[in-house]
Amino acid sequence: MPLGPTPRPQRTSRALLIIGLYAGLGAIAIVWGALRGHADIYRIPAALGTSTPAKLAASPVIGLLFGLAVVFLTRLLTHRFEWARVLHREFHAVVGELSSREMFILAIASAVGEELFFRGALVPQIGVVLGAAVFALLHVRPAARFLPWTVMSFIVGLVMGQMYVSLGDLGGPMVAHFTINLINLNYIARTELRA
Questions:
Q1: Ranked by mean pLDDT, which of 3-7, 31-35, 88-92 comes out on top?
Q2: With the C-alpha atoms ordered 180, 183, 187, 190, is the resulting torsion angle positive or negative?
Q3: Separation between Cα atoms, residue 153 and residue 147, nearest integer Å
Q4: Taking the model in full, what pTM does it have?
Q5: Which region among 16-30, 58-72, 130-144, 160-174 has the lowest average model confidence (pLDDT)?
Q6: DSSP 40
Q7: Distance between CA 122 and CA 58 in Å, rounded?
Q8: CA-to-CA distance for 75 and 44, rounded, in angstroms?
Q9: In 115-170, which residue ranges form alpha helices assigned H by DSSP?
Q10: How many CB atoms lie within 10 A of CB 19?
Q11: CB distance 102 to 15 below 8 Å
Q12: What residues form DSSP beta bridges with 183?
């Protein structure tokens, strides 16, 4: 009598890992803010800026426009420079097998988790420039060919940090981050560039 296949333990889905990672980052940010006496890290502390109804309404719109500008710049760089095409091919190998659902989850989870941590928790504590530097460090890879990605991450971190301070909430940075990640992930995963 032949034996059936050996049951394998169920593998944790990538989506659950993504959500767990960024939920943990967001939770650290919220706890850190609460320990500093600023539990509502979504809004800028009064000592650093103010939030008004007009700014709250403008924040996601400005975030969307900035996100679309970064996506446009990314495409332009990919079509003009070999280093950008090399980055695209490297990332394609990593994200090419993600499903549309996983890319959406990655885009939204990273936008919320990273913005809560890097802008909501870090900026009030260490400032926009150092917060952007720490954000860029997350985007460091060992090979020199990734240096432009790290530099772009620093510049994007500066703008999103300043957006948080100027507009008074994380709405703009979260929408920008989500827009950049969702559109770029889909483009990178679905577009295979020739060498």
A1: 31-35
A2: positive
A3: 10
A4: 0.90
A5: 130-144
A6: -
A7: 23
A8: 32
A9: 123-126, 128-138, 147-167
A10: 16
A11: yes
A12: none
